[in-house]
Amino acid sequence: MHFLSERRPDPGLVERAFTLADIPGFLWMPASAKTWAPLPLVLLAHPGGLGPMYPRLLARARATADLGFSAVTIELPSNGDRPRIPAIEQARAAVRETVTAGGLPGDDVIDSFILPLVDLAVPEWQAVLDALLELPEFGGPVGYSGGVIAIGTRLANVESRVVAAGLFAGSYIPRSIVEEARHVTIPLHVLLQWDDEGNDRQRALELFDAFGSAEKTLQANLGGHTGVPSFAGEDAARFFFRHLKYSEA
Amino acid sequence: MHFLSERRPDPGLVERAFTLADIPGFLWMPASAKTWAPLPLVLLAHPGGLGPMYPRLLARARATADLGFSAVTIELPSNGDRPRIPAIEQARAAVRETVTAGGLPGDDVIDSFILPLVDLAVPEWQAVLDALLELPEFGGPVGYSGGVIAIGTRLANVESRVVAAGLFAGSYIPRSIVEEARHVTIPLHVLLQWDDEGNDRQRALELFDAFGSAEKTLQANLGGHTGVPSFAGEDAARFFFRHLKYSEA
User: Fold this and answer.
1) Which of A109, A169, A248, B63 is buried most deeply by CB count within 10 Å?
2) Could you state a single Gene Ontology molecular function term (chains A, B) (predicted)?
3) Whole-angstrom Cα distance, residue A128 to residue A27?
4) CA of B241: which chain A residue's CA is closest?
5) Coil, helix or strand for B179?
6) What is the CA A185 to chain-centroid distance, rounded?
7) Tens of pLDDT along B79-126?
8) Å from A183 to nearest chain B CA?
């Protein structure tokens, strides 16, 4: 992990830009953090495009720092400034074509778009954990927050350092990911926008039903993809606080 | 409204037992309440049986008082110590027979059980509001909290003094109530127990979809009918606090 710059977007927050191999990312810590007190860490996931996503990621990093936690994000494969992967771009174009024509993409198109992203992104999040958890500032526990929900589902399944996930049911869900969800056992908080234009509500409900976790909450709110109400963010923050705060032991 | 007794279940809470006509009920206020400062009021609804429900109602009254609000509950028609209504009892027996045989009651049975309860209970809640809101201690705004969800839906539709409802999707939902829900416009917070044994998850989701409200949240948690997790109660409390606290004006 190579740190490029450090700044304070506001007095309470330290932001470091970094690259890990060729992956750009941002790391945020509460300005009050002491280096001798390792922090819980939240992986701030997003649908790709660090540039346009930056304002929303910064707001989520602020909310995470308010809990006393650090936060990290990286660019998705084949997004933002990263090199394009032809198979993913072809599948993305097929999705767009269907949506532009007013349709919902079929399972094959969704699989060819989402599954390669999952296969590439999950080891990258794990590499971020490898790099950060050897630094003295970060002790875990680790949470995953946001979309792409298929990536969060796979990561929750294969990465034991992730102990809680707040997922956003706002992207396409391959059928095989519903099967993988049955093996997920960590606590989950799933946000669903009830009127999300481009997504399949029934598949999202099916995914929620499939998760094997003993604690799982679905919070559905009226509104479209970007209309998540502010109180929903606060409820998600409380979920992470319950599961990532240090025990008294 | 005839007050029968007053006691303090704990130092922070005043409880008054009352009857309104022949309907028994309880009224709770924060012990710190001043008579010159009228309080918001939460109608604590329940599935019937004040005796067995009392411990849970008291816990909900405490949580409501912690918000600075008063709370009131009454017995449902044909429940607890109230006289039995033959048509309701026949329908209840038919529901039990179906459930005991391992089935789900059909729409006709549900209608004959729930709709008479709704028709009787809604004017009784309105009579409680008439009686309380003329007292100096209670100024509104008023919220409805809990099951029976069909009663809450009708009341939200016809009673303009109720400005927010936290509903529990834990009882049978007649089809006509789904239609009435389209005319409900107040903010809603709907709790759904994902694995509620006796209820129809799909009908509950259909009801949530039908509500006409511009702000509506569905919170579904893993677990059976009585397994609502404590954090879900806290989220519901925050919903009421947002909508019933006095504005600064």
Assistant:
1) A169
2) hydrolase activity
3) 10
4) A231
5) helix
6) 17
7) 999 999 999 999 999 999 998 998 889 999 999 999 999 999 999 999
8) 16
